[in-house]
Amino acid sequence: MESIYDAFRRGDIPYIVNQVAPDVFWRQPASVPWGGDYIGAGEVGRFFGRLNEVAETTGFDIEENIEAGDQVVTYGFYSSRNRATGKPSRARFVFRWQFAGGKVVRYEAVIDSAPIAAAARA
Predict the structure, then answer these.
(1) Is 11 helix (H, G, I), strand (E, B) or coil?
(2) Residues 98, 90, 18, 46: is their CA dihedral positive or negative?
């Protein structure tokens, strides 16, 4: 888990895409600009492209990882600056990861989108 988070912090998206199964299910809440369902490793790359178009990541803080069998639930905060408005935001998240064969097969995020939406308003 930490290797994926470390890769995100340093902007190594190809590493992350290499850690997902070819048919991975990747879900971000529709309430964020980069939200939606992404199916397959190529779509995960597209997700990170959409995220980068909208936001400059300024912080990614993990509070806790809870492991249960092939699943990990992560609690933390995502900080960013909206590229269009320049406004910052800090949003709490919960991520649920599922692994099989050493690869991510399912990822779902729950994000407090209110701070992100507020940063998008001019």
Answers:
(1) coil
(2) positive
Residue 122 has pLDDT above 90, yes or no: no
Taking residue 58's Cβ as centre, other Cβ atoms within 10 Å add up to 12
State mean pLDDT over 66-78.
98
The runs of H, that is alpha helices, within the chain are: 2-10, 13-18, 41-54, 114-120
pLDDT above 80 (res 68): yes
Mean pLDDT for all residues in the chain: 96
- H or E segment and range at residue 23: strand 20-28
Distance of CA 77 to the CA centre of its chain: 11
Q: Give the alpha-carbon dihedral of 9, 14, 19, 20, to 10 degrees.
A: 110
CATH of 2-120, one of 3.40.50.2300, 3.10.450.50, 3.40.50.720, 3.10.20.70: 3.10.450.50
Q: What is the pLDDT of residues 76-112, one digit of tens each?
A: 999 999 999 999 999 999 999 999 999 999 999 999 9
Q: Which amino acid is at 96?
A: R
- DSSP designation for 87: -
